[in-house]
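Data deposition worksheet. Section B asks for the primary sequence of the deposited chain exactly as it was used as input, without tags or linkers unless they were present during the calculation. Section C holds the resulting structure in token form. Section D is free text for depositor observations; keep each observation to a single sentence. Incomplete worksheets are returned to the depositor.
Section A, Depositor: J.P.
Section B:
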Amino acid sequence: MHRNLAESSKPHTFRTKESRFVTIVCFVLLMISVYYWLVTKADGSPAGQFGALVNAALFAALGIRFVPIWVHSWSRPEGMTEGISAFNQRDQTVSAGKMISVKVFCAFLLIDGLIILLIYILQVLSGSTISFRQALDIWRSVDSAHYLDIARDWYVKTGNWDRMVQLVFLPGYPLLVRIINPVIRNDLVSGLIVSGVCFAGAATVLYRLVRLDHSHTHAVQVLKYLCILPGAFFFAAPMSESLFLLLSVSSIYLLRKKDWFAACVLAGAAAFTRTLGLVLLVPVLFEMITDSVETAAREQASKASQEETSDEAQHISDNKKLLLRNAAKYWNLIFILFGFGCYLFINYQASGNPFQFLIYQKEHWSQSLGFFFNTAAYQIDYARGTLQAQDYQYLLGLWLPNLTCIFLSLILMLVAVKKLRPAYTAYFLIYYVIAIGATWLLSAPRYLSTLFPIPMALAAVSEKRWLDAALTIGLTIFFVLYAYMFVNRWGVY
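Section C:
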């Protein structure tokens, strides 16, 4: 009996040591990055530097809480059922049902229409006297105009510089608009239709994904928070947000169903739609490794129970089949790279350089990848500058919403991390580092709205009714105010 207890403690000790090692390595890398940034950054205010350090500290705290969960999920012993690992075994018999899916889809088509109507009402309240049809042209603002140009004319190889640099916008979304536009014969309406259908589809799949682990009520709560995120009105816009959300959520859902091929194909389509689609490599690989660990544990248990009655040659054959089956699923990762490779090929066709989009991003938009905590620094500095210049529109419409989302999303995930599936948190972390690490970030609420772990985390932390009500009211007010600032062109991109 004492021997068994000692043996059962070994996996826990192993996981503790592994967790400490991974945590220390990640923490050291982050500290080196922060130190390098502090030494090499000659400009910036003390307030901005302090904000950057706070941002890095929050990220580090989230990582410290996440790493033990991560290591635990990849080294769980046979029969482990507590905590996060129980997610794979709970509610597996739950079926959302076709009628529920149809209801969710139709409800979100209606919500998409209500968003378009809200934007029109806000235009009227702002003093506009144009008709509803004319008011739709507001959806051509920000990046929408670029996507619609591409949908109409595809990528321009020579001529107008402003049209050539549109190569930075990936082809997944404009290709869909281009396909249906010959029928609709209006690029803006075609774009709005594609976005609305994709938004409804994304909500339907997200509902089914949440139902793998939670009740119907909880899944509906996740959808509610998706609708009232500050940048959620961009799902109705003729841009790639709604399509990217549909593809990324569908990929994760199929991962949970262990359909590796379809999951990777859809992740590749996401990488053909936005560069951040490449980040799906992380949750896909995470789920594959988790599945391999679980499969090995089940096989070990099965082998132990049949050891005395089974033929040894049959065991060897079964082990080889298991090894081949586990190895085969990893080959599907190539489809994610292939999706982005198709975009690189379009770059090559248009410019002769498969990475021309990086040049255009840097030359035209001053955009490249930097330290995510540096973004917090320069956003604070710009906020202070607009405040001193009394440029309140850009302060309220651009810098403060960016900063709010940059910091509160980390705090939210820090609170919710133990209630989320590890692959979802891993996806958030890598997505955050890249999306927020942009050297000229103008659209944090929009970029983070497509990050599905955020509405999941909001639902996870709002189990108490009063907190759910407070979050719902607060986010709804933020949503309406942000939409009002978008209508009035207060620097909302």
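Section D:
The chain has a mean pLDDT of 88.
The CA atoms of residues 140 and 260 lie 37 Å apart.
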